[in-house]
Each structure stands twice: as C-alpha cells, then as structure tokens.
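Structure (tokenized):
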C-alpha cells in the first residue's frame, strides 16, 4: 500500500504546490496538516486515497482550494465558504484593522456585502461592545454568513437581506464598511484562474469597476452619524478615483491605506461632524 509521504509527493508534483497538496490531503483524511509529520510512513487507506485524488483533480481543473475544502481562515476565524460567497482574502484584514480603530465604544457598524460574514464576524469577535449589522443581496451567501455566526458563537451580529443600505433600519451608523465588487466588467482576469469560480456579482461592477462604490458612497452620508466613517476596499489602481467619489459625496479627511503588498487597498472618509 502507498504511504502518506508518497501520495503527498505525487499530489505536490501534480499541483506544483506542496501546501495545497497538504490542505487537500488533510481535508480528505479529516486530520490537521501537523498530523503528517508523525504519520508520513503510515499506509494510506484506499478509500481515503481515492477521495484525495478526486480533490486533486478538482484543483487541477482550476477550482479554488477554499471551495474544495469549504473553509478559509480570515483574521482569527475559520469560516465556511461556498461558491455563493467570495473567498475572504488576507488583504481585507486591513479593512478590519482600520475599521476597529474608528469604531467608538458601543458603536454601530454596518458591513455591506458581507458574503461569508468575514468582516462583520471579525469585528464582532474583537468588539463584544459593538452592534454589528451585516447585509448581503444574496440569500445563499447570507445563509453561509449566518451559519458562520452560529458556529463561532457570534450570533449577536444582525443579518439583513438586500441591496447595500436598503434593508437596514432607520438608525444612524458610526461606521459603514464593505468589500464591494470593484473589478472592471471587461477585465480578463474575471475569466481566468480562481476568479472564474467566484460569484461575478461579488467581483465586477460596471465599466470602471466603481458602480457599486459610487452607489454606496452616495447613499451612506444619510445613514451615518455626524463624524462617522465610510471605509471601502478597492483595487490597487483605484485609490485616487475612490477618494474623488467620496469627496463628491461630501466626505472629509479622505485617505487611502496600503495593504501588506504596499498596494492601495482601502479608502475612507468621514461625514462632517
Ligand atoms: N480582491 C479581489 C480580487 O481582485 C476582488 C474582490 C472584490 O471585487 N471585492 O481578486
């Protein structure tokens, strides 16, 4: 019988990536990656090997690892993800950091287009004092976010189904955040690699990619408390354009922050006090 070491090596060759092979084998065997260190010489069961090989075939066909395993880590959380949700990305943790800095004690924050719930749940985890609202236009995505909230014991997050700010009640927010779609609809990347498998409505937003950012920026001032902040993630080449959108919508102190790769990633502004 083939041992664990050998099937891991074969999968690494097929995928060109050791880490991905480990993720998939750990998933197929129902173990953690650390388990391999002590069990490299164990024989691999035929059923498990077959399960693993079918996962490797899906990955070779292009399907993102997170959809194959059904999970992705974000912030300090392990989240369920499905093809109804965008796969949370490390760069979005910058948005969480900037948002936490601006959320007053006991403040109200809305996460627009929550997807798997990544931003809202990370904020709820860090700030038990805050009132966190999370909106998504996709009922399927919202069901995933709700399951994540339940599994993580963060059920006080309030979920709402609809378009951006529309389904949220009348009270003002101290902070509005979001990772809306921002890719240009003609961008060829949408038809390549992992992006092909993600929901297009979570990725593309009109000719210049800014349709939804403009909608959110225009609607937000009426829903923010005086001095409240709007923070939005965007593409690496959209910082100046997003600041201009924010300024036109009446926001002050606009800024753009860079992610760990030193690329423009989040812009924000505050409503006049
Ligand atoms: N950051 C993602 C990407 O470029 C896009 C996410 C989004 O449109 N909100 O792959």
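Design, position by position:
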């Amino acid at each position: 019988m083939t041992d664990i070491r050998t099937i891991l090596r074969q999968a690494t060759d097929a995928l060109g990536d050791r880490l991905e092979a480990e993720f998939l084998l750990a998933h197929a065997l129902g173990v953690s990656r650390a388990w391999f260190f002590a069990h490299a010489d164990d024989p691999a069961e035929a059923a498990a090997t077959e399960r693993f090989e079918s996962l490797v075939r899906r990955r070779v066909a292009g399907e993102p690892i997170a959809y194959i395993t059904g999970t992705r880590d974000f912030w300090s959380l392990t989240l369920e993800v499905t093809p109804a949700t965008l796969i949370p990305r490390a760069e979005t943790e910058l948005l969480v950091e900037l948002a936490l800095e601006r959320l007053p004690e006991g403040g109200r924050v809305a996460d627009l287009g929550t997807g798997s719930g990544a931003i809202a749940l990370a904020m709820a985890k860090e700030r038990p004092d805050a009132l966190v609202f999370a909106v998504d236009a996709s009922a399927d995505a919202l069901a995933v976010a709700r399951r994540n909230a339940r599994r993580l014991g963060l059920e006080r997050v309030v979920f709402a189904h609809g378009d951006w700010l529309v389904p949220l009640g009348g009270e003002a927010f101290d902070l509005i955040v979001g990772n809306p779609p921002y890719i240009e609809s003609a961008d060829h990347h949408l038809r390549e690699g992992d992006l092909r498998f993600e929901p297009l409505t979570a990725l593309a937003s009109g000719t210049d990619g800014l349709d939804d950012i403009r909608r959110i920026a225009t609607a937000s001032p009426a829903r923010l408390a005086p001095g409240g902040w709007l923070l939005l993630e965007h593409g690496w080449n959209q910082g100046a354009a997003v600041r201009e959108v924010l300024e036109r919508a009446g926001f002050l102190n606009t800024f753009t922050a860079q992610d760990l790769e030193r690329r423009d990633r989040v812009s924000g502004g505050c409503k006049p006090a």
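Reviewer-requested clarification: The radius of gyration is 21 Å. The longest helix spans residues 46-60.
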